[in-house]
Amino acid sequence: MLYKVVAEQLETFLARQEERERPVPPFVEREFRDYLTCGVLAARGFIRVHCDSCGHDRLVPFSCRRRGWCPSCGGRRMAETAAHLVDYVFPMVPVRQWVLSIPFALRYRLAYDSSLLSDILNIFIRVVFGQLRRRARDLLGLKFSQCGAVTFVQRCGDALNLAPHFHSLVINGVYAADENGQPEFHGLPPPEDADVVRVAALVAQRVESLLKRRSLGLGGDPDTAEAPGRDEPGLAAIYSASKAGLDLDWTEALQRYPIEFLNSTGFFCYHAACAISCLKTALASRSVNGCQNRYPTRIHGDVEAGLFLPIERDLQRLPI
Fold first, then answer.
1. How many domains does the chain divide into?
2. Within 13 Å, how many C-alpha atoms sit on residue 137's CB side?
């Protein structure tokens, strides 16, 4: 469905942005066009694969290798990254996923301000590590310990709306030196609700202090705040449409959470409810034509989500 929408609406979308004097940046247009030619033999070329045993030939087309929204290239990169993390990065210890969603007021800026995005991620990881070390000290009596994590920055939500957020795979415990000076792993129990609230509130406080130091709060420099609109008006319009078109219904949020809780966490959404005993179990073996290939399994179960793209709004809501 995504391919059909892009193929049918791309030229209309690009022409309309030109008429509005808000042209789409060249790298965005390349992302669209390369996606449409991904896996097309006549457009990208191919290699011929021959089996000496059975004599069968197959033409394998070249992919676009883009990082935007090509499901094929994204899925392959996801599988390769998962295998690399399991084989060469993570030890055989429990891992917990920590997720931090950004308030709507910050999403527009974080879509283009990579420096601010990195600083907020640094705050997030430091707070999580500090919480793990504190619990290790209180529960296990460890005065000095080290943590580890790998974070993936996601730029969109389930509906392809602009929603920068972090998925961090954090070792569910700490390492401390044993009597021989060698690192020894110490597991920790799942965090309590109070631990999660404490982390979210501390992240909100430190991010607010960071924004004040950079004059990026509500009273910040309007010229700086409107930098993307001045430098890249087309990209700014896409960001704005993607963010504003799918904002959260705060009425529903306030029914689930009291306003005191939302204020205390700075409207940062945060959870750490998913954990596995060992990342090695997140990969499964599958045989395809006699060859062994490994694919990441679904930790959350076989849950399928539907995708609805409002064609009448063209392509403005895709997070770029």
1. 1
2. 10
